[in-house]
């Protein structure tokens, strides 16, 4: 399970790095995430996240039980030390994975909003140039009519 969690964390880190820098791969990734967020995608993502959160809480509970057991006896045996280290590693990887998934979602949202704002800004600039062009033509026409 730990190797799976490591590969998940590294994959999410790769996705975040790809989203941070402008490249053709970024556009492809944004289109892919858009496709995932349609239809049943959000339901599946929420189900996976909820399952991961439940497993995360179970691992944390296991860590607390091991710690409580060692506090009662006063000494932690080697088996409990190994289990505690493994559970802490699993818990940290799961928590980091959930955090990176949330970061990926927010980055995708902000990048899409940035594209929309840039597009609207270009449209406003274009319409402003058209309006200025029409005003200058009207001014030229009125000067010609006066002459």
Question: Care to describe what's here?
Answer:
The chain is mainly alpha-helical. The chain is 91% helix and 0% strand. The chain is built from 4 helices and no strands. The longest helix has 69 residues. The relative contact order is 0.10. The mean pLDDT is 88.
Q: In a nutshell, what does this entry contain?
A:
The chain is mainly alpha-helical and 147 residues long. The chain has four helices and no strands.
> Percent range for helical residues?
over 70%
Using DSSP, what is the number of strands? 0
Radius of gyration: 28 Å
Name the poorly predicted regions: none
Number of DSSP helices? 4
Q: Overall 3D geometry?
A: rod-shaped
Taken in chain order, the helices and strands follow as: HHHH
Search tags:
91% helix; mainly alpha; 147 residues
List the SSEs and their pairings.
Elements: H1 2-20, H2 24-36, H3 41-73, H4 78-146
